[in-house]
Amino acid sequence: MATIHLKKGLNLPLAGRLVDESVSMAASCSCYAVVPDDFQGIVPRMDKREGDAVHAGDVLYHDKTHDAIKVVSPVSGVLKEVRRGERRKIEAIVIESDGTGAAIEHNVKRDVRELLLESGLWVMLRQRPYDVVPSPEVEPRDIFVTAFDSAPLAPNLLQVVGEKRQYLAAGVKALQTLTAGKVYVGFKDGEEFDIEGAEVNSFKGPHPAGNVGVQLANVKPVNKGEVVWTLDIVTLARIGELMTTGKVPFDTLVAVTGERVKQPHYVHAIMGCTVEALLKDNLCDGDNRIISGNALSGVKVPLDGFLRAPYRHLTVIPEVSCPDEFMGWAALSPKRFSIYRTFTSWLTGSKDIKMDARIKGGERAIVRLDEYDDMLPMDIYAEFLIKAIITRNIDKMEQLGIYEVAPEDFALAEYADTSKLELQRIVREGLDFLRGELS
Asked: What integer best gives the mean pLDDT of the chain?
C-alpha cells in the first residue's frame, strides 16, 4: 500500500456540509426517470414504448452502435413518457412506479462481461480516453476505482456503500476477469483497508484528489493507444452484489447538502427519483439553485426534476444571495471567499463560506497566471491543452495529455479561472471531437 501526497488543488469550505450520518427515507414518489445524457458516448435506441409494462432491470434502450450496451429501468411499473427535445433527442424516460418492486433476476453463472451488459451496470463504467461508457469489444489495460469523493459537500462513499462492503471483494474478482492488468482502488488517507485481489493506494491532499482521473494519472497514466476503465466504490459494490445475488441493487444513499437545506443529511432513495421526494420539508424558501451532484460539476435540475446519475449527491445553494449588495461583485466584503485572498475572509480560518450561483464576471481572454495548473495535480500543461482544444489542434491535444483527462478534472480550475471560461464544456467538446475524428 502506497500513500501519494498531492499538493495542488483546493478544498472549498461551502456552508451546508454534512455534520452527522443520520439517514432518512425519501418521501413517496410515483415517477422515476433515466436521463440518456448521463451516459456519455451512447446514442439511445428505444426497446420499450410508452405504455409498456416494465420490471426493475428491464431494458429501456440500447446503444445504436453497440447493441449489447443497455440501460435498464430502476423500478417496476409503466413507461409513462419519453420526453424529447430538439430533433427528437431523448431527454428523459419517465417510469410510473407500481410499487411492487418486481425485479429481473440474472443467472450469475455466465460471462462477467455479458452479465454486466445485460444488467445495465456496464453504463456505470467509464473509459479513458474520452470519458465515455466503454466499448464492450476492448480489453482495458487496468481498472481504477476511487473510494472517496473530495468535491465540496460530497458524501462519504464508504458511508454510501454501508453494509454492502461485503460485496467489494466479489466486485474486484469480477473486474479481474475483464483485464490482464490490475484493479486499483484509491482511498482517502486514513480510511484505507485491504480488498482481496485489489492493489490499494491512499491519497492525501485537497480536491480533486478524489477524482479517479487524478488518481490514475498519479499511479499509472494513460498513454496513446491504451484504454483504462474507471468507476467508484459504490458501483464496485453493486457489481459484487450482482455477482453474489443475481440482482441489481437500485437503491442508494443520497447526500442532501447545501446552504439552502434545513438539515443536511443522507436520504435512502431509489435511483432516478424526483428531486422533490429528496427535499420534502427540508428546503428553505427563496430562489434556490438545485444541483444534482456537487456545486462544481453537477447538473442544474428543477424541483420537479429527477436525480441524475451517479445518483448519490444533491446540493442546494442560493441563486442570488444578496441582489442589492452595495457595489455588487466589486464589494470588498469580509464575508466573501477568494482563493487569491482578495478579501479578508481568509483571516478567519476554515470557516464555512456562503456562496451563490452567480459567476460575478464575464468571459474574457485567457490570462496566463498558472491558475489551471495550480488546481490540477496531473502532469499536463492544462492551459495549453485548453487552447489546443479550442483551436481543434489534434496533434497538440494528444501531446498535451487529452487522453488522461475528463471534464470533472477541470471543474476546480473552472471555478478559479479569472477568464470565466466554461472549461468543462470545452473539454467535453474536445473529447467528443477527438473521438469522432479518430474513430
From this structure: 93
Q: Across residues 377-382, what is the average pLDDT?
A: 94
pLDDT at 330: 65
Q: What is the pLDDT of residue 439?
A: 79
Distances (CA, A) of 234 to 76, 312, 324: 22, 9, 43
How far apart CA 254 and CA 307 sit, in angstroms, is 9
How confident is the model at residue 328, as a pLDDT?
63
DSSP of 332-399:
--TT---TT--SGGGGG-S--B---S---S-------SSHHHHT--SSS-HHHHHHHHHTT-HHHHHH
Asked if the bond preceding 310 is cis, omega within 30° of 0, the reply is: yes
Quick one: pLDDT at residue 222?
A: 95
Please tell me the number of Cα atoms within 13 Å of 363 on its side-chain side: 4
Location of C-alpha cell 473530495: 150
pLDDT at 331: 67
Residue 235 near residue 121, CB atoms below 8 Å = yes
Residue type, position 384, single letter: F
Burial class, 95, CB count within 10 angstroms (exposed 0-12 / middle 13-18 / buried 19+): buried
Sequence spans of domains, the chain = 2-245, 371-438
Residue 208 preceded by cis peptide, ω within 30: yes
Among the listed residues 127, 123, 32, 133, the one whose alpha carbon sits nearest the alpha carbon of residue 71: 123
d(CA 332, CA 130): 41
- pLDDT at position 6 over 80: yes
Neighbours of 135 (CB within 10 A): 16
Contact (CB, 8 A) for 39 and 125: no
